[in-house]
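Batch job 17 of 40 flagged for manual review because the log was empty.
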Amino acid sequence: MKFSYETDRLLLKVLDGGNAIDVLRFYDSNRDIFEKYEAMRPENFYTPAYQRRVLNYEFNTFVKQTAMRFWIYEKKDPAHVIGTICFRNIVRAVYQRCEVGYKLDQRFWGEGYATEALLKCVELAFYELNLHRISAYIMPDNLPSIRLAERVGFEYEGMAKGYALVRGIWEDHFVYSILHP
């Protein structure tokens, strides 16, 4: 695996703690949208120090291939994060699977960037990590996320009851998956 990839319009990069301010800016400007679908954040989440620690941790998980997070940039503006895609819980042996999560800055919705980036990352997971299965767990009211998963080829498999603690409530999630072709 490389630390950066390109698509027609995007750059996908693995970052380290040196990019904490840009990542913090991305999270902070999308706080209202992202937080309604995620676990409670620690009190210091919106600080450069916290983001630096997380980025350094994620860099190390990428090197170990236990998880991989790519940050999305427009080629025409390679200095500002516009999104992220993360493959987590990579399990090897007889499973060869992982879970995917993604976020895109709301100012870039409707331009096909999320589809373009997710297609590339799925390709990397299948052909460079040699994974067999990728699953996405999506809250039923997160229609943009459902539409994205379906556009990329993920298929609905069912409901995971009480799958994740979101904002203090055990929320059900739809399970969508895609298999290596």
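Reviewer: the log was empty due to a logging misconfiguration, but the result itself is present. Residues 48-64 form the longest helix (17 residues). Unflagging and moving on to job 18.
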